[in-house]
Every structure is written in C-alpha cells, then in structure tokens.
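Here is my example:
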Amino acid sequence: MRQARTWMVSAVALAVIAGLAAPDAWAARLDQAAIFIEINDTDGDAGIQIFLDGEGWDTMQVFGPNGRMVMGVVADGSVGFQGITEFFIESAEPSFDEQPLEDFLALFPAGIYSFRGRTTDGRSLIGAARLTHRIPEGPEVISPEEDGDPLPIDDAVIEWETVPNPEGSRITSYEIIVEREEPSLRVFRADMGNRQTRVTIPREFLQRRREYKVEVIAIERSGNRTISEVEFEVD
C-alpha cells in the first residue's frame, strides 16, 4: 500500500535488543521524535510509523507507555560505525479483516513513548513522543470520481470535502499525493491548509492516456493521518 515518502531509511540491521543502560546525567536528547498512526480508509488497514532525528547513534529502543518494548534497532557494519541520524520506519499494514482496528490499537496504546539509544561515542541518547488514538475520518474525494470520466489534462483538479475534527483534536492539514507508476514512477505532492479543499495538478506533470492514483490525506494535530485513494486517467 505504501507510496514513496520524502524520508529515506538508512540500511540497518533490525534486532530485538535488551539490557540497554538507563539514560545517565550526560545523556544527549533527540532533536525530533514522533510516533503516529496511518489509516488507509480505502484499503481498510492501519500501520504505525516512527520517526526520529538526532546526533549519530548505533543502538535505539522504543518503549510504550506500559513499559513494553515496541522496537529495537542495532546498526552494524559501516552504518553502525558512521552512525544514524534521521530514521523513519513503518510497520506492515494487514487489513482490518486480518487485524481489526481494536486489536491494532491494543498493540500500540495511547500515551508517552520513550526513546533510549546510544550515540556512536557511547553516550545515552533519549527522547519522548506522545501517541494518541485521535484518528481522522477518511476525506471524501469529489474529483476525480472513482470509475468516472478522465480528467482534462489542462485542468486536472483534485477536490475533497473537509474532514470534521476528531474528538479532542483538530485537523491541521491535508497532504495530496499523485502517482504515476508506468512507464516510470513520478510523484506530485502538495501540502495544503486545513481549510483548503482543492488543488490543480501541474500540466507538465501529466501525460494523456496514463493511469494515476491520488491520495488525499487528512492529518490531525498529533500526526495521525487517514488516507482516501482514487485512481483516474487523464485525457
């Protein structure tokens, strides 16, 4: 299901690691730490995503609010020697038929998640992020219509309905991603405000009689997001 994203994951060896020393008084702090939920309303699935950024490290663990380890990462070889700074990972996304949303949320309870790692010079590296269960509804895509007429190449408009604010949160933005997979991958991306409901795809991005897919993504304040997808052609 996953499309191209701007974050790239360094090549690392993933492993369960235990016994990492508790953070000390000289611990460095991550510049950024985030954990959030992504729902695909069209496909009916959910996944967890984790992002962090900080000085170079070779070991990292993430613990949930219940104290259980969510993820452990060890960077070996040349990458381990060099150290990792930015890191992004997302889980597999089984369908709700295989894993109902309630079971998924039970695996990742709401609350504070702690990040505990080790820098390449041996210091502790720590951070924290809050995960909520405030999940947006999937945006209703008005244009293009599923199985509808092709969009005109000179006026290809993506349009959607605004999404109501989740209880206890608010929609902060929409992200629009248009992909063409054949004959080679091309991606158009636009970040829109929470009151905007349309964007025109640049003419130079499009080719006639090609198939495209658009994702309209509603993003709420804590980072949780829900995707609606539509496939379309250009005439």
